[in-house]
Structure prediction request, 424 residues.
Amino acid sequence: MRIVIVGSGAREDALSWRLARSPSCESIVAAPGNAGTASRGENVRVSVTDGPSLVELCRHRNIDFAVLGSETTIAAGVADRMAAAGISVFGPSRSAGRLESSKIFSKRFMQRHRIPTARAAVVHSLDAASRALAEWEGGVVVKADGLAAGKGVVVTKDADEARAVLRDWYGASGIPGGGNGVLLEQRLEGRECSVFALSDGTSLTPFLDARDYKRAGDGDTGPNTGGMGAYSPADDLPANALDVIRERILDPVLRGLQADEERYVGVLYCGLMWTQAGPAVIEFNVRFGDPETQVLMPRIDGDFAALLKSVADGATDASAATVSARHCVGVVLATESYPYASTPVNDLVPDVSLPDGCQAFWGGSTLENGHVRASGGRVLTVTAIGDGREDARVRAYAAVRTLSSRFGNANLTYRSDIGAGAQP
Ligand code: AMP
Ligand code: GLY
Prediction:
């Protein structure tokens, strides 16, 4: 089949890499793609939120199947437009996409359908926030309602710290993402993990799990980022974790979506905290994660394209692809100013070839006259697969050193502790 992948980050590079290796994939177009996708198909310049042009692209190229990479594409209603045009599409409707694009919608959905999550209050002004915090005990997580590219969540230790954030948001700096609603949430303690489940509208099947590293610095210090690395599987969860997640979270989510008549076709990324009382949802995302996808794809065997297409067509064929028991670790190489600024890097060598079992995926970038221009921020994710997490980690850092010396002049930085730490 002919596939279009919409997006331009390392996540879409990893998806296109895996899709292109699927027996049922005939060709791949990336819209707009990056330096990595350019090497395995055609890149077409089009905005990821421009529904009419994306539909036109699919028609013009006789595309059989579209995979939507990012939340901005879903929030722009691109899946709705494609579905209305008769194009088979992996990605939920704009309405169901509110599980990610509105934290208030998402929290109300969880409360209505009794899905375990942190206690929360919704406020629309500084006064209302002060009243909600008057009797608050413990830490507060302050969340802007809308999409804010990872900048809309601040974890605080108590109500005083939360008040300072709110004064800033309702004052000089404005609420990240530009909305007006804010969610105040009880801070949960535990271990975080990400579970990716495939939804074809009538079933919600757990598929893969991972852990990502959101903070910029070693030891989880420094500012929040889009993610500085990840590993899969999240190997320190209880042995029956997936059964518990299915029963307490995925089954009620599926029933809730059906009861609310939401069209959900695609992947549901459940950001979970494993607390003393079991798993609680921190957030839902309505697409694959970045950098999690870069460590998930190397673990998949079989026909991944056929699997995603079966999901999009409403009848998940779980036998089309399987998940290997091996571990994968991925390290993000970013520009020094990340996450504060995106400083473009010019004239990078396009060669990211690495030994077998290692793979590098480009972030936002273009290939021009034999050189790569990276838009800055997260430039590359370097991954390695291994028999255990430690084996994968050692191989991933060896690959990082190889690539850093190839990109010597670019001053890329990375965390040195991805995948290290407690083993089960
Ligand atoms: P998000 O942007 O929603 O992924 O949140 C960013 C990070 O904030 C998460 O990965 C968690 O580490 C943290 N976080 C969000 N909500 C909570 C919560 N209720 N309790 C503890 N940490 C949280
Ligand atoms: N790694 C976090 C995200 O994709 O939202």
